[in-house]
Design goal:
heterodimer, A: 178 residues, mainly alpha, globular, B: 101 residues, Helix Hairpins
Chain lengths: 178, 101
Protein backbone atom coordinates (compact mmCIF):
# COMPACT_ATOMS: atom_id res chain seq x y z
CA UNK A 1 0.00 0.00 0.00
CA UNK A 2 1.42 3.34 -1.06
CA UNK A 3 1.21 5.67 1.83
CA UNK A 4 1.77 9.42 1.79
CA UNK A 5 4.26 10.27 4.48
CA UNK A 6 5.99 13.48 5.48
CA UNK A 7 9.09 12.49 3.51
CA UNK A 8 7.20 11.86 0.28
CA UNK A 9 5.47 15.23 0.48
CA UNK A 10 8.76 17.01 1.16
CA UNK A 11 10.49 15.15 -1.68
CA UNK A 12 7.69 15.89 -4.15
CA UNK A 13 7.69 19.57 -3.22
CA UNK A 14 11.46 19.77 -3.57
CA UNK A 15 11.40 18.16 -7.02
CA UNK A 16 8.54 20.43 -8.11
CA UNK A 17 10.52 23.44 -6.93
CA UNK A 18 13.53 22.33 -8.99
CA UNK A 19 11.37 21.76 -12.10
CA UNK A 20 9.72 25.16 -11.70
CA UNK A 21 13.16 26.76 -11.35
CA UNK A 22 14.20 25.08 -14.61
CA UNK A 23 11.06 26.49 -16.21
CA UNK A 24 12.04 30.00 -15.10
CA UNK A 25 15.35 29.94 -16.94
CA UNK A 26 14.28 27.90 -19.98
CA UNK A 27 11.07 29.65 -21.06
CA UNK A 28 11.46 32.16 -23.86
CA UNK A 29 8.62 34.45 -22.89
CA UNK A 30 8.98 36.51 -19.67
CA UNK A 31 5.35 36.04 -18.66
CA UNK A 32 5.78 32.25 -18.48
CA UNK A 33 8.98 32.74 -16.52
CA UNK A 34 7.07 34.84 -14.00
CA UNK A 35 4.36 32.19 -13.67
CA UNK A 36 6.97 29.47 -13.14
CA UNK A 37 8.63 31.66 -10.52
CA UNK A 38 5.31 32.01 -8.69
CA UNK A 39 4.89 28.23 -8.63
CA UNK A 40 8.47 27.87 -7.38
CA UNK A 41 7.77 30.33 -4.56
CA UNK A 42 4.57 28.53 -3.57
CA UNK A 43 6.51 25.24 -3.41
CA UNK A 44 9.05 26.95 -1.18
CA UNK A 45 6.29 28.34 1.03
CA UNK A 46 4.87 24.84 1.50
CA UNK A 47 8.34 23.53 2.29
CA UNK A 48 8.76 26.30 4.89
CA UNK A 49 5.47 25.17 6.38
CA UNK A 50 6.73 21.59 6.58
CA UNK A 51 9.97 22.76 8.22
CA UNK A 52 8.05 24.43 11.09
CA UNK A 53 8.30 28.03 9.83
CA UNK A 54 4.62 28.95 9.58
CA UNK A 55 5.14 32.71 9.87
CA UNK A 56 7.83 32.79 7.19
CA UNK A 57 5.61 30.69 4.92
CA UNK A 58 2.82 33.27 5.23
CA UNK A 59 5.28 36.11 4.60
CA UNK A 60 6.62 34.23 1.57
CA UNK A 61 3.13 33.93 0.07
CA UNK A 62 2.15 37.53 0.81
CA UNK A 63 5.40 39.34 0.02
CA UNK A 64 7.03 37.17 -2.64
CA UNK A 65 4.27 35.34 -4.49
CA UNK A 66 1.96 38.31 -3.96
CA UNK A 67 3.62 41.71 -3.98
CA UNK A 68 6.95 41.09 -5.72
CA UNK A 69 5.52 38.93 -8.48
CA UNK A 70 2.64 41.35 -9.12
CA UNK A 71 5.32 44.01 -9.57
CA UNK A 72 7.12 41.75 -12.05
CA UNK A 73 3.90 41.10 -13.97
CA UNK A 74 3.13 44.84 -14.09
CA UNK A 75 6.55 45.58 -15.54
CA UNK A 76 6.26 42.75 -18.07
CA UNK A 77 2.85 44.03 -19.14
CA UNK A 78 4.24 47.57 -19.38
CA UNK A 79 7.36 46.71 -21.37
CA UNK A 80 5.76 44.03 -23.54
CA UNK A 81 7.00 40.47 -23.01
CA UNK A 82 8.99 39.85 -26.16
CA UNK A 83 10.30 36.35 -26.78
CA UNK A 84 14.02 35.92 -26.58
CA UNK A 85 16.01 33.80 -29.01
CA UNK A 86 18.57 31.73 -27.14
CA UNK A 87 21.54 30.86 -29.32
CA UNK A 88 24.71 29.11 -28.16
CA UNK A 89 27.86 31.19 -27.77
CA UNK A 90 31.27 30.98 -26.15
CA UNK A 91 30.23 33.07 -23.15
CA UNK A 92 27.27 30.80 -22.61
CA UNK A 93 29.32 27.60 -22.49
CA UNK A 94 31.85 29.32 -20.21
CA UNK A 95 28.96 30.24 -17.89
CA UNK A 96 27.73 26.65 -17.95
CA UNK A 97 31.12 25.21 -17.08
CA UNK A 98 31.61 27.76 -14.28
CA UNK A 99 28.25 26.96 -12.72
CA UNK A 100 28.74 23.20 -13.08
CA UNK A 101 31.99 23.59 -11.18
CA UNK A 102 30.12 25.53 -8.49
CA UNK A 103 27.44 22.84 -8.38
CA UNK A 104 30.01 20.13 -7.93
CA UNK A 105 31.60 21.98 -5.07
CA UNK A 106 28.24 22.54 -3.42
CA UNK A 107 27.38 18.85 -3.75
CA UNK A 108 30.71 17.92 -2.18
CA UNK A 109 29.89 20.25 0.71
CA UNK A 110 26.42 18.70 0.95
CA UNK A 111 27.96 15.22 1.09
CA UNK A 112 29.96 16.22 4.14
CA UNK A 113 26.81 17.48 5.84
CA UNK A 114 26.65 19.30 9.14
CA UNK A 115 29.88 18.90 11.03
CA UNK A 116 28.85 19.97 14.49
CA UNK A 117 25.15 20.24 15.33
CA UNK A 118 24.37 23.03 17.78
CA UNK A 119 21.05 22.31 19.42
CA UNK A 120 18.98 25.28 20.47
CA UNK A 121 16.24 25.04 23.03
CA UNK A 122 13.40 26.09 20.70
CA UNK A 123 12.08 22.72 19.61
CA UNK A 124 9.11 22.61 17.21
CA UNK A 125 6.89 21.63 20.15
CA UNK A 126 7.87 24.73 22.10
CA UNK A 127 7.32 26.94 19.07
CA UNK A 128 3.94 25.43 18.23
CA UNK A 129 2.88 25.89 21.86
CA UNK A 130 3.54 29.63 21.75
CA UNK A 131 2.72 30.22 18.06
CA UNK A 132 5.27 30.74 15.34
CA UNK A 133 4.56 34.45 14.77
CA UNK A 134 4.90 35.16 18.48
CA UNK A 135 8.13 33.19 18.75
CA UNK A 136 9.62 34.93 15.72
CA UNK A 137 8.46 38.31 17.01
CA UNK A 138 10.00 37.81 20.43
CA UNK A 139 13.26 36.71 18.86
CA UNK A 140 13.22 39.55 16.31
CA UNK A 141 12.57 42.33 18.81
CA UNK A 142 14.93 41.09 21.50
CA UNK A 143 18.07 39.51 20.10
CA UNK A 144 17.92 40.75 16.51
CA UNK A 145 16.68 44.29 17.02
CA UNK A 146 19.59 45.91 15.17
CA UNK A 147 19.12 43.81 12.06
CA UNK A 148 15.42 44.69 12.13
CA UNK A 149 16.20 48.40 12.29
CA UNK A 150 18.79 48.05 9.52
CA UNK A 151 16.21 46.30 7.34
CA UNK A 152 13.73 49.12 7.88
CA UNK A 153 16.44 51.68 7.00
CA UNK A 154 17.17 49.69 3.83
CA UNK A 155 13.51 49.85 2.83
CA UNK A 156 13.50 53.61 3.43
CA UNK A 157 16.62 54.04 1.29
CA UNK A 158 15.04 51.95 -1.47
CA UNK A 159 11.91 54.10 -1.37
CA UNK A 160 13.93 57.31 -1.64
CA UNK A 161 15.95 55.79 -4.48
CA UNK A 162 12.80 54.87 -6.39
CA UNK A 163 11.44 58.39 -6.02
CA UNK A 164 14.72 59.85 -7.29
CA UNK A 165 14.79 57.42 -10.25
CA UNK A 166 11.21 58.23 -11.17
CA UNK A 167 11.53 62.00 -10.75
CA UNK A 168 14.97 62.85 -12.14
CA UNK A 169 15.19 60.25 -14.88
CA UNK A 170 16.66 61.28 -18.21
CA UNK A 171 14.12 62.05 -20.89
CA UNK A 172 15.36 62.22 -24.50
CA UNK A 173 12.29 64.08 -25.76
CA UNK A 174 13.03 67.08 -23.54
CA UNK A 175 16.62 67.29 -24.77
CA UNK A 176 15.64 67.19 -28.42
CA UNK A 177 13.37 70.19 -28.00
CA UNK A 178 16.19 72.35 -26.59
CA UNK B 1 12.20 11.31 9.39
CA UNK B 2 14.65 9.79 6.94
CA UNK B 3 15.21 12.86 4.76
CA UNK B 4 18.01 14.58 6.57
CA UNK B 5 19.77 17.85 6.14
CA UNK B 6 21.44 16.52 2.97
CA UNK B 7 18.11 16.80 1.15
CA UNK B 8 17.85 20.49 2.05
CA UNK B 9 21.47 21.06 0.99
CA UNK B 10 21.04 19.32 -2.37
CA UNK B 11 17.74 20.98 -3.31
CA UNK B 12 19.10 24.35 -2.24
CA UNK B 13 22.36 23.90 -4.17
CA UNK B 14 20.49 22.76 -7.28
CA UNK B 15 18.15 25.73 -7.33
CA UNK B 16 20.99 28.14 -6.54
CA UNK B 17 22.94 26.80 -9.53
CA UNK B 18 19.87 26.96 -11.77
CA UNK B 19 19.51 30.61 -10.75
CA UNK B 20 23.19 31.26 -11.44
CA UNK B 21 22.93 29.69 -14.90
CA UNK B 22 19.82 31.72 -15.62
CA UNK B 23 21.52 34.93 -14.57
CA UNK B 24 24.49 34.21 -16.82
CA UNK B 25 22.77 32.95 -19.97
CA UNK B 26 19.66 35.09 -20.30
CA UNK B 27 19.73 38.47 -22.04
CA UNK B 28 16.46 39.87 -20.74
CA UNK B 29 17.09 41.87 -17.53
CA UNK B 30 13.67 40.93 -16.15
CA UNK B 31 14.52 37.23 -16.32
CA UNK B 32 17.94 37.96 -14.84
CA UNK B 33 16.22 39.57 -11.86
CA UNK B 34 13.96 36.52 -11.57
CA UNK B 35 17.06 34.30 -11.48
CA UNK B 36 18.43 36.40 -8.62
CA UNK B 37 15.14 35.82 -6.84
CA UNK B 38 15.59 32.08 -7.35
CA UNK B 39 19.04 32.21 -5.77
CA UNK B 40 17.80 34.23 -2.79
CA UNK B 41 14.87 31.85 -2.31
CA UNK B 42 17.11 28.80 -2.31
CA UNK B 43 19.26 30.36 0.39
CA UNK B 44 16.11 31.12 2.38
CA UNK B 45 15.14 27.46 2.15
CA UNK B 46 18.54 26.40 3.40
CA UNK B 47 18.34 28.78 6.36
CA UNK B 48 14.85 27.64 7.33
CA UNK B 49 15.65 23.96 6.93
CA UNK B 50 18.69 24.30 9.16
CA UNK B 51 16.84 26.41 11.70
CA UNK B 52 14.40 23.51 11.94
CA UNK B 53 17.18 20.92 12.26
CA UNK B 54 19.13 22.89 14.84
CA UNK B 55 16.01 23.86 16.83
CA UNK B 56 16.83 27.55 16.76
CA UNK B 57 14.98 30.56 15.37
CA UNK B 58 18.02 32.46 14.09
CA UNK B 59 17.64 31.02 10.60
CA UNK B 60 14.08 32.25 10.33
CA UNK B 61 15.13 35.76 11.35
CA UNK B 62 17.87 35.71 8.71
CA UNK B 63 15.30 34.55 6.13
CA UNK B 64 13.07 37.50 7.02
CA UNK B 65 15.98 39.93 6.59
CA UNK B 66 16.84 38.31 3.23
CA UNK B 67 13.23 38.76 2.12
CA UNK B 68 13.46 42.47 2.96
CA UNK B 69 16.69 42.82 1.01
CA UNK B 70 15.15 40.95 -1.94
CA UNK B 71 12.09 43.18 -1.99
CA UNK B 72 14.21 46.34 -1.94
CA UNK B 73 16.51 44.91 -4.63
CA UNK B 74 13.61 43.98 -6.91
CA UNK B 75 12.01 47.40 -6.60
CA UNK B 76 15.23 49.27 -7.40
CA UNK B 77 16.13 46.84 -10.19
CA UNK B 78 12.76 47.15 -11.88
CA UNK B 79 12.90 50.94 -11.66
CA UNK B 80 16.34 50.92 -13.30
CA UNK B 81 15.09 48.59 -16.05
CA UNK B 82 12.12 50.86 -16.63
CA UNK B 83 14.35 53.94 -16.83
CA UNK B 84 16.68 52.22 -19.31
CA UNK B 85 13.72 51.11 -21.40
CA UNK B 86 12.34 54.65 -21.49
CA UNK B 87 15.55 55.99 -22.97
CA UNK B 88 16.64 53.12 -25.22
CA UNK B 89 13.49 51.10 -26.09
CA UNK B 90 15.55 47.93 -25.96
CA UNK B 91 15.70 45.20 -23.34
CA UNK B 92 18.91 43.35 -24.24
CA UNK B 93 21.63 43.63 -21.61
CA UNK B 94 24.33 43.17 -24.27
CA UNK B 95 23.27 46.42 -25.90
CA UNK B 96 23.40 48.39 -22.66
CA UNK B 97 27.10 49.28 -22.58
CA UNK B 98 27.16 52.93 -21.61
CA UNK B 99 25.95 54.43 -18.37
CA UNK B 100 24.79 57.69 -19.95
CA UNK B 101 21.65 57.25 -22.02
Amino acid sequence: MFEITYDIVVLALGITAVLAALGVILCASPIYCALYLISNMICFALLFLLYHAEFIAAVQIIVYAGAVMILFLFIIALLGGKKEIIEPSVERSAAFSFVFLLFGELLLAAGVGPTRPIEGQLTPDVISAMGSAKAVGIELFSRHLISFELASTLLLVATVGIICLAKFSYSPARRRSQ
Amino acid sequence: MTLGSEFVLIISATIFCIGAVGFLIRKNPLIMLMSVELMLNSVNFLLIGYSSFLKSLDGQIFALVIMTVAAAEVVVGLAIILTIFRTRHDLNVDHINVLKG
